[in-house]
Specification:
The protein has 13 helices and five strands. With about 280 residues, it is an alpha+beta fold.
């Protein structure tokens, strides 16, 4: 086992175990993934310890297999604060038996929750119509309903307001007041507006205000699975940084050779070859 707080951590939201969980992986990676899957949370996940766990593969093979498991979406390495009261950082390897996309991992590392977890925990059964009518309208619904009062060209039906309510709620969540919401949606309207609902939806998407920056402290930093370099989650493709992926870095425009310079270099190279062959 690793020191307390370190080592393996099981990612949330996994599917029930099945016999073919790792059938999509090569034999070595499937074997190591099955081994890690049976390890308890808190087990050491460094290359040296994993090589000792089993006699089939050495440290270099284990390291390569871990990189491949990361690329396949099964694990990510992170540095994480214990809590807000203790500024201690621990090193953890999150493992998911279910392969996950980069977008899933980025959301989880940013929020600590599996995407869709909050929605899945709520009751998805729709309320009866009489209960919906008895519920007071939300501020987003009220803002949409008020557009028709400000300008009759954007008069929306109750069904239109319900369909557009999530977009309007996102506007208000980003700090837009109802007055600014109405002004932004009704400014410069064409005459006539043939479909108020479609027009309003387009404006809600195109004019969506930016998210306000938050001052919350960083509690989790993603690492490259191979070299352990701290990186932003979006810079890690398959859990690997640019260097470990072998992605060539594009030169800035001012460092690139023009076509004329390339032709000049080629001419000098040909001339050097001709001269050397004559001598």
């Amino acid at each position: 086992m690793a020191s307390p707080g370190y080592g393996k951590q099981t990612a949330p939201g996994e599917l029930p175990p099945a016999a073919d969980d790792f059938a999509h992986l090569p034999v070595r990676e499937a074997y190591l993934a099955s081994l890690i899957n049976h390890l308890p949370d808190g087990a050491a996940m460094d290359v040296k310890t994993l090589a000792v766990y089993q006699p089939l593969f050495g440290q270099m093979a284990v390291r390569t297999a871990l990189n491949n498991l990361s690329t396949a979406g099964h694990l990510r390495r992170v540095r994480e604060r214990v809590n807000a009261d203790r500024p201690q950082w621990v090193f953890r390897t999150y493992f998911s038996r279910t392969p996950r996309s980069d977008a899933w991992w980025n959301h989880f590392l940013a929020t600590g929750e599996a995407p869709g977890a909050s929605e899945a925990s709520t009751d998805s059964t729709p309320d009866p119509p009489e209960e919906r009518r008895a519920t007071p309208p939300s501020s987003a619904y009220a803002a949409l309903a008020g557009l028709g009062i400000a300008d009759t060209r954007l008069a929306l039906s109750a069904a239109d307001c319900e369909a557009l309510e999530p977009l309007a709620a996102e506007w208000l969540a980003r700090g837009t007041t109802p007055a600014l919401f109405t002004a932004a949606l009704t400014a410069g309207l064409p005459t006539p507006v043939h479909s108020p609902a479609a027009f309003t939806r387009r404006r809600l998407l195109d004019k969506m205000p930016p998210e306000r920056p938050t001052a919350s402290p960083v509690t989790r930093i993603a690492e490259c699975t191979d070299c352990r370099t701290p990186c932003r989650p979006h810079a890690l493709l398959g859990g690997l940084c640019r260097t470990c992926r072998g992605t060539p870095k594009a030169l800035p425009p001012h460092q690139r050779l023009s076509p004329a310079a390339v032709r000049a270099h080629a001419a000098r190279a040909r001339q050097a070859v001709i001269t050397s062959s004559r001598s």
